[in-house]
Design brief:
By secondary structure, the protein is α/β, with parallel strands linked by helices. Strands 1-2-7 form a 3-stranded parallel β-sheet, with helices on both faces. A two-stranded parallel sheet has the order 3-6. A two-stranded parallel ribbon has the order 4-9. Helix 3 packs across helix 5. The longest helix is centred in the first third of the chain and has 16 residues. It is globular, with a radius of gyration of 19 Å. The two termini are 36 Å apart.
Length: 239
């Protein structure tokens, strides 16, 4: 746990770099969240991450609120959806969707759950820079793209060359009895860009032709044909 980790490093010169997540927000306030926004998670993951943030802020001499202590030496980075291959090949955002389509099974994604995805390569470069330098404070680390889960599934479906009939979409309220899910939890990462004096993230997906233009965009296969190889080369990794 975060408490145990803080106990271990207390009194040493170890600097903590902690990864949190956009789900510390409920997504009911229109997105575009900045670091000063009050956290109000509705998911178990979000609540756990928000509590970890509060513990670190208190340890750094704050009061456990969203305000960042001036004495803070740790770095807290709130990430969104890392786009890459997961360790087990099933847990990542792309993995789950692609596995459904590859097995000819339907996948239902939501119109109103919106994230700021990032290529894993971009995140790895950011982590290296934060670790190497004395970088501290609370920062949003979401990409410049703002996409719904449905749009992400559209991209996976068409770029991967899968059956468009397999993709289903609906608002969260129409999904039936499910655990609470966050809505528009998009983040504004300008503070991070200013601190590093550069744009940290590429758009996901990088290619303009891979961006949906409407709710039936993935049905159009007239100009190019997708494939699992194309998906691997352009969605799982930065082209």
């Amino acid at each position: 746990s975060v408490t145990t980790m803080l106990d271990v490093i207390r009194g040493t010169s170890t600097r903590l770099v902690h990864l949190s997540i956009d789900l510390v927000f409920s997504g009911t306030r229109g997105g575009g969240h900045v670091e000063e926004d009050e956290t109000d998670p509705v998911t178990i993951c979000g609540k756990t991450m928000a509590e970890a943030e509060r513990i670190i802020l208190r340890e750094q001499g704050g009061d456990g609120t969203r305000s960042v202590p001036t004495t803070m030496t740790a770095a807290i980075l709130r990430i969104s959806l890392p786009m890459g291959v997961s360790f087990n090949g099933h847990a990542g955002a792309i993995d789950w969707i692609q596995n459904r389509f590859a097995k000819q099974k339907p996948a239902t994604l939501y119109y109103d759950e919106i994230r700021t995805p990032t290529y894993v390569e971009c995140l790895n470069e950011l982590f290296e820079e934060v670790i190497v330098h004395d970088f501290c404070g609370l920062y949003h680390a979401g990409g410049p793209s703002r996409l719904s889960l449905y749009q992400i599934a559209q991209i996976v479906n068409r770029v991967g060359g899968y059956n468009p009939q397999l993709l289903k979409g609906c608002p969260r309220i129409e999904a039936g009895p499910i655990p609470p899910r966050a809505g528009n939890v998009t983040m504004n990462s300008d503070r991070l860009y200013l601190a590093l004096n550069r744009d940290v993230f590429y758009y996901w997906p990088m290619r303009q032709e891979h961006l949906p233009t409407d709710s039936r965009w993935h049905f159009d296969r007239s100009d190019w044909l997708g494939s699992p190889l194309l998906l691997s080369q352009s969605l799982y990794q930065r082209p």
